[in-house]
Write a structure and sequence with these properties.
Layout: H1 2-16, E1 23-25, E2 32-33, E3 36-37, E4 44-46, H2 47-62, H3 66-73, H4 75-94, H5 98-120, H6 125-149, E5 174-177, E6 180-183, H7 192-209, H8 217-234, H9 237-253, H10 259-275, H11 277-284, H12 291-309, H13 320-323, H14 342-369, H15 374-393, H16 396-399, H17 401-415
Antiparallel strand pairs: 1-4, 2-3, 5-6
Helix pairs in contact: 1-2, 1-6, 3-4, 4-5, 4-14, 5-17, 6-7, 6-8, 7-8, 7-9, 7-15, 7-17, 8-10, 9-10, 9-15, 10-11, 12-14, 14-15, 15-17
């Protein structure tokens, strides 16, 4: 009984810890590229990792037949994962930096466990929604404070993983708008784009699982307002576009139901974006000559060239950065970053076989979505389309701890048929 209660506590704690990037970095030789440390390759023990490890320990301690039961009940799925790991493993063995690839495989195992856990078990809708709610308010208000303060706040927020920065910090995400540099808030995330993605997905999840009624309208509206401001200030174009598309669709389809609050807020923010030069120029001034866009194109070309040279097994998991210098001449330090597309990254690091396995998994996920009830199918399609669209233009779902956790949460919820039913979950 005690283990069961602790298991639930660590699950909800892990959901909240999506906001935290507090962790202990280690710097073995394979985490250096040309003598420079790379955060992407550094083995890191995050607080969220500790929470998942405790969850796994409690889970296995209570269910000693877990592995055998999975093999019996999900034989085809188990074989598919084994094949996927064999393909990834071959690429890692053939890579120039196999230890970095091995670390990546360990992380995959961790998140597969967490994804299976989310997908397989019942838990309280209310507690799940409240865990998300606390994270939304925490991140939204911190993003506002950083934007007003023109930098990090420090103090207690350090223990949630807030990094020390201001507008002049090297490599910080400033946006050039109308000739002025605007500091994009990070909250406790590694990049403003991750902050925006977190707020978008957790707000959708919160709205779906929180039991709304006329007495909670102000409560829900306030939550969406905070999330919307955080997304607006992040200046994340992909999330802006996705938010406007989702808001417009829901406004047309569900004018009078609980989504109307979310729709109204999104449309108001969309109006602000396009009516104010400050934010409208963030979209209008985007061009192929823009520095960030030009860098993304160069990285994408390098990714395609890598795939051409390592078509079957790729350059190896976590080996994209180490291979960049072979494909880009005069490589500057700022260019040592993954290609901004999870699909191109998978192509270059995993090759055609691993990419095919992931496509097959996405096919099964889509098939699962269409087996749900009408309301839940609509909700899960919004999650899946948002994930695929944002993943087309960014890499954090594959490369950063909080992005990996967010992807695992989204896919786990989509696969959890019990969680996405309309009935009450205890």
């Amino acid at each position: 009984m005690l283990f069961a209660k602790l298991e639930k506590i660590f699950f909800y704690l892990t959901i909240f810890l999506l906001v935290s990037q507090l962790g202990r970095h280690f710097w073995p030789s394979f985490s250096f590229i040309n003598g420079v440390r790379s955060d992407y390759l550094s083995p890191t023990l995050y607080v969220s990792d500790i929470s998942i490890i405790c969850l796994a320990f409690l889970y296995f301690a209570r269910r000693k037949i877990f592995i055998s039961s999975i093999v019996k009940k999900e034989y085809c799925g188990s074989i598919s994962f084994v094949i996927f790991f064999l393909l990834i493993g071959i690429g890692v063995v053939l890579s120039k930096n196999p230890y970095a690839g091995l670390y990546g495989m360990i992380k995959i195992i961790e998140f597969i466990f967490f994804g299976f856990y989310i997908a397989a078990f019942q838990f309280s809708k209310k507690t799940f929604a409240l865990s998300l709610w606390v994270g939304i308010l925490f991140s939204g208000f911190l993003a506002m404070a950083q934007f007003i303060h023109h930098g990090s706040l420090g103090g207690l927020f350090y223990f949630f993983g807030e990094r020390a920065f201001n507008g002049e910090t090297p490599g910080i995400a400033n946006a050039s708008i109308g000739g002025s540099l605007i500091l994009r808030p990070y909250a406790t995330f590694p990049h403003p784009n991750v902050l925006a993605g977190y707020l978008l997905f957790t707000t959708l999840l919160f709205l779906h699982f929180f039991e709304s009624n006329k007495h909670r309208v102000l409560f829900i509206s306030f939550t969406v307002l905070v999330a919307g401001i955080g997304i607006l200030l992040s200046l994340s174009r992909a999330v802006w576009i996705m938010g406007i598309v989702l808001g417009s669709y829901l406004f047309i389809k569900h004018r009078l139901d609980r989504y109307s609050i979310f729709i109204f807020s999104i449309l108001v923010f969309a109006l602000v974006i396009f009516s104010q030069t400050l934010f409208a120029s963030r979209l209008y001034e985007t061009s192929f000559q823009n520095e960030s866009v030009a860098q993304r194109i160069v990285l994408a070309r390098a990714s395609i060239d890598m795939f051409g040279d390592h078509m079957f097994f790729g350059v190896g998991l976590n080996n994209y950065l180490g291979e960049l210098s072979s494909y880009i001449t005069r490589l500057s330090p700022v260019m040592y970053q993954p290609v901004h597309s999870i699909f191109l990254l998978l192509f270059s690091e995993g090759g055609i076989f691993s990419f095919g396995m992931v496509v097959y998994f996405l096919y099964l996920t889509t098939k699962n979505v269409f087996s749900l009830s009408k309301k839940d199918k609509e909700f899960c399609l919004m999650l899946l389309c948002s994930f695929l669209f944002i993943g087309l233009f960014d890499h954090y779902f594959f490369t950063l701890q909080q992005g990996q956790l967010l992807m695992t949460l989204v896919l786990g919820v989509i696969w959890n048929k019990i969680l996405t039913t309309s009935g009450t979950i205890t």
